[in-house]
Amino acid sequence: MPKSQTEAEELPRTIVRRVVKDKLSQSSDGEDVILHKDALLAFSESARIFIHYLSATANDICKESKRQIINADDVLKALEEVEFPELIDPLRVALNEFRKKNAAKKSGAKANEADKKRKLEKDPVAPNEELEGNEDDANGICGDDDDDES
């Protein structure tokens, strides 16, 4: 059964609950915070609306620049345009950490690929070498043919 438009756009409640509880417990000296179901729904809907508003603004900025792909700078400009400049610096920090992590992963993957390449150059193993046997058997010629009665 296809989901309705609102259900498909709904944020996962467990993630919203975790984010809200973590943030509220940080500001309340580590005390466990209890959320009412209505409060969780309000947080979820607020976040969904904020995401829509921010993405629409970033999309407008992207189109003004005559581009089709929204990039991080568009989102940063959109935050300023929707009057949330206090979010720009933490977002830049998170973005830089994300980029460093990805660069480390890419360099690690390239190093692994280079190691594999070196190993293959040193000890090349053909995939068909595992199936050793009589060459005639590989061609479908068997030496046990007792059909010849001459």
Automatic annotation (TrEMBL):
Residues 102-150 are annotated as: Disordered. This is DNA polymerase epsilon subunit D. Residues 112-124 have a biased composition (Basic and acidic residues). It is found in: Nucleus. Residues 10-79 form the Transcription factor CBF/NF-Y/archaeal histone domain. One of its GO terms (cellular component) is epsilon DNA polymerase complex. One of its GO terms (biological process) is DNA damage response. InterPro entries: CBFA_NFYB_domain, DNA_Pol-Epsilon_Subunit, Histone-fold. One of its GO terms (molecular function) is chromatin DNA binding. CDD domains: HFD_POLE3_DPB4 (cd22928). Its main location: nucleus. Keywords: Nucleus. Residues 129-150 have a biased composition (Acidic residues).
